[in-house]
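Standup notes
- DV: blocked on the single-chain target, sequence here:
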Amino acid sequence: MVRVAITGINGRMGTMVSEIVLAQPDMELVAGFDLNGGKQVGPIKVSDVKDIDSVLKAVKPDVLIDFTAAGAVVGNVKAAAANGVNLVVGTTGFDEGQKAEMAEAIKAGKVAAIISPNFSIGVQVFLKLLAQAARDLEGCDIEIIEAHHNKKKDAPSGTALKAAEVISSVLGEKPRLVYGREGIAPRGNEIGIHAIRGGDIVGDHTVLFACEGERIEIKHQAHSRSAFAAGAVKAARWIVGQKPGLYSMGDMMKP
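- DV (later): unblocked, structure below
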């Protein structure tokens, strides 16, 4: 039985994750955290996130799933790692300093962790297709367009940045990233990244490979956040069986 704790459990993603966890015969929800504690979720009462350290010590979960905000997640990761709790982090918008802090905490705590901008299984296939296309279409102009709902705080999305990273990793000459354009902007060796925010768009990502005489578009569209929640729960089940270290969804998808 995998013992699961969730931070941000009252939020949209946290609610979906908790519902999926409660439906799994091999999982048990043992703790939930949010800014406002007290709500009953299945067998547990949500705790105030200020009490995360003491609650983790008491209930000893196998894994903590975090969907909160970049400013909050570093503290959550540190608390989990210090208590020997493995991690699945779906929060986005980190700066390099925050990434380094989390990596150091994970290493010091000797826990296993997946930190991913997108837990959709379909997105992992999308990223594999991008790597293949970038290898075979080297020399084409590449643009990334992402669209999300009007409440999303960070731009461009973590998935768009991951797509640019995957594409850049297989190209001989590394392109620079250009975030939108205006004025006189002649194209160089670059990948353009464009962010759209509006309505209730769950998450669209399109990568355009514009070549001489033809173009290819590779697209992923999320119709429901359930795709992210289901992938995060699958990752939680997988991560508890791994050796200490920092993993990606790509590692989980390896045969």
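- Follow-up: The first helix runs from residue 12 to 22.
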